[in-house]
Amino acid sequence: MGSKLALLQGTLDLLVLQTLASMGPLHGYGLARRIEQLSGDEVVLNQGTIYASLVRLQQRRWIEAEWGTSETNRRAKFYSITRAGRKQLAEETSYWQRLAAVIGRVLAPSKGGTK
Amino acid sequence: MTGRVREWWERTLGFIRGRRPDPDLDAELAAHLEMAVEDNLRSGMSPEESHRAAMKKFGSRSSAKETIDDQRGLPWLESFFKDLGYALRGMRKRPAFASVVVFILALGIGANTALFSLIETVMLRELPVRDPEQLFFLQNVGSKGPNGAPPYPCFELFREQTRAFDGMAAFGFDNFDVVMDGRAEQVSGELASSSYFEVLGVKPAIGRLLTATDDRLQPPVAVISYGCWQRRFGGNPAVLGKVITYKRSQLTIIGVTEEGFVGMTPGHPADVTLPFTVQGPGILREKANWGFDAVARLRPGVSVAQARAQIDTIFQSYMAELAMKEMRREYFDHMELAPASKGLDTLRSRFSRPLLVLMGLVGLVLLVGCTNLASLLMAHTDSRRREFAVRVAIGAGRGRLVRQLVTEILLLFGLGSSVGVVVGHFGSRLVAGFVAVERTPILLTPRFDIPVLAFAACVALLTGLLFGVTPVLGALGAAPYPALHDSGNRSTDSRVRMGVRQMLVITQVAFSLILLVGAGLFVRTLANLDRLDLGFRPQGVLTLSITPVLYMTPTGPSYTDERLDGVWAQLLERIRTIPGIRSASLAWLTPLSGRDRGVRISVPGGEAADPNIGQNHVSDGYFETFGIPVLAGRPFAPGDRVGATPVAIVNEAAARFYFGDRNPIGARVQIRGGRVDTYEIVGVVGNPKHLSLREEAPRFIYIPVAQRRDPLRRLTLAINTPGNPANLAPAVEREVRRIGADILITEVTTAERQVEASLLQERLLSTISGVFGFLALALSAVGMFGLLAHFVQQRTAEIGIRIALGAETAAVRRMVLGRSLKLVAIGIALGVPAAVLATRPLASLLYDLEPSDIGTIAASVVVLASTAMLASYLPARRASRIDPMTALRNE
């Protein structure tokens, strides 16, 4: 895999939700770092774009934000997932897994078929 | 799902709040960068490097903030409002252009909306009753077309013996002469069987409506309409219990129908509904009384064919018993079900064709106007290319520019259409007023409801896309970029656009020609009818319908037939004393009043081919009053009274038909119809038109009022005066009232007005088509002028060179005029066959004229061509006055 993966529409929202669900409250920078680490630096991520996603998720009441103090004693805004967010995450996760499975099935034989 | 809804809600709120600086976000992003820098420092980068790497990772800060702002609002709506503001500023900067566009659209869309609202009123609107599509009229049909319902006994059989219907009601429209609150008046109304309101599913506004036992008239009751309640009784609930005196009955008002329902005859709202048994109990038993209509509600699941078969079987056996040979096939051949959802179709059958013709007409006008608009918009866009180029150069995308232009056009078209809807509203009122002038006024109530507004919106959108967006985007061309360094005048693009504009002008000329030919045909039809010999002289004649109202008084009926004879004699005597009256007379029928009465006669010397003839009762002085010439013998005289020899007069048509070359004077004829009477013919008069101007004057026999055959409960008083007849009306009415307060005076009008009313449809068509024909002509002239002016402007340099090289003024003018002539010639060449085709369906609306009348077409061509030449003259003159030096310097 030479180039990095471009994120599909809407997947960033899902990554944010998943990260917050597994890591607990995080600030924007921490979230961005975490996503980069988890994805093994395989995705292209302008860290700035994560904030539009955070605004959207807040508008949908799937996450909430609160000012707090970081590990380095800096004032930062911490985001945490809400109950509605967890429900949404569960739904989307199963959707992604089903989709991935289907696409995998469809693509697999064509590889063998063309010899 | 709720998450997404919340998001849109928040974004809408954000949009309303507007964009504003967000220090909270700034602090958050700053913290992000600082943490990133710290991390980088910790991993051993130099301070500078740490900073650069952090910035790189973060990406563009301004674009991040913009995405966040977009996420917090509705960006496309914001840009739409920005475009709108820009478009409004543009309109203010070019008020002339904007007002021309709005004016053309307002007129075109206004006319179309007005016509559509009338078509909806007359042809599409359903009765405000429950499930109107289940309702059907039960009609007898013969070779002469559909009729009303069969007599009541047969109707009763339908009701008893079929299972196809959920309910059935008999009804009939009529005017009632009644006494209400001690005052004699005429009200429009319906007679109805007691099941009427129940079958229709009409509910009361107050009180109750007719129920099953009301047919028995114990006690007699009446129902009034909501409109009558509001108008006549001020909406007072105390109306319940008031008494209406009608003939021999005292009817108590028991209820008011719900708002909106005005009976089964569109255009003729019924104010009062009475049980039809008030006409006398005999109506339920009369086996050959064909005086009413029947409406039935089809049972769900039963087909029209099944229901028809059931009632037809009953009808056929009823008719077999009735043994009615004559007229059987023509009128009463079989039963049919006709959809009743829109009410009786008198209005529809009369106005559908003229309305559709007018709709086609205003549609054409809209097209002509829109071709102008398209041409105008193209020229306008063309002249703004430099502005667009600048905007593209400073960074507006092409998509953004297109969106901007579309917004501008939609604003113009939206504005024009909105004004158009208002114009249409008043236009439809105007036309509705036009038709409300007859003896029984047709009351149309055009509404601006959902279908009409939807129609206007569709037309506006379609014209906007076709004639607004398309030409503008076309004129914008593939790439606006070259426009900056090129003035854009001689590019191929511009040539193509000129070609398109020429085609638009050609189309316009062709359409205008169709409109002119149509207008010419209608105007000439009206002129032909206006020129017709009426057979009588309407000038100076005032007519009033006089009805002594019949009702029961404690001493017996108000007017017995004998007492009536006295009233008529006394009336004439009194009226003739009024100063300023040349002659006065009474008549059962007057020309063009819309009333008719037929009898059969037999004349000595064998059976005539057709014994049917119109019968009129007239007093002495009648022929003089109406200026009907006495061709032979004498007119009626005061001596022709009861006891003297019964005398009659025939018109020329009757004399020729029954007597040929023989002299009818002195012949004794037998008149049948009711009973047989013998009259001696004493005179022959001219042929006055009777029901319509288009029809030949029918055969008529006249009988003196004093030697009447029928009871005369109503007569028309006609007065001839040298002055203005309308001025005489108050004095005449006063004199009539002096004879009896319960004498009803209705239909006060002049004979001239009745002639005019009988030409209503022709006048409507010729006025509207004339106005729009003229409009189309003006629009074509403007279109031609605009095109040539643009042409001359574009060719300024070329023309300058020609003039510099010695071209003569006349030659330059010829060049411009030649161009215009060519376009007009092509337009006319296309327009003439189109007009011949388009006017073909008009044949039945014309009089003494073929749709493809050569004279009319030729005149239209001449008018159109000379107007176009006139419009081309100014640009041609300008071209010939171009100063070569200035023209070349400007290049």
Descriptive account of the structure:
The complex is a heterodimer of chains A (115) and B (891). Chain A has 115 residues and is an alpha+beta fold. Chain A is 57% helix and 14% strand. Chain A contains four helices and three strands. In chain A, strands 1-3-2 form a three-stranded antiparallel beta sheet. In chain A, helix 1 packs across helix 4. The longest helix of chain A is centred in the C-terminal third of the chain and has 31 residues. Chain A is globular. The two termini of chain A are 21 Å apart. The mean pLDDT of chain A is 84. Helices cover 52% and strands 16% of the residues of chain B. Chain B contains 26 helices and 24 strands. Chain B has a six-stranded mixed barrel with strand order 3-4-9-6-8-7. In chain B, strand 1 and strand 2 form a beta hairpin. In chain B, helix 6 crosses helix 14, helix 12 packs parallel to helix 15 and helix 14 runs antiparallel to helix 15.
Radius of gyration of chain A: 17 Å
Major interchain interface with per-chain residue totals: A-B, 26 and 31 residues
Structural class of chain A: alpha+beta
Helix content of chain B: 40-55%
SSE ordering of chain A: HEHHEEH
Mean pLDDT of chain A: 84
| Morphology call of chain A | globular
Spatial separation of the terminal alpha carbons of chain B: 64 Å
Unreliable runs of chain B? 478-490
Uncertain regions spanning at least 5 consecutive residues of chain A: none
Give the CA-based shape of chain B.
globular
Mean pLDDT of chain B: 86
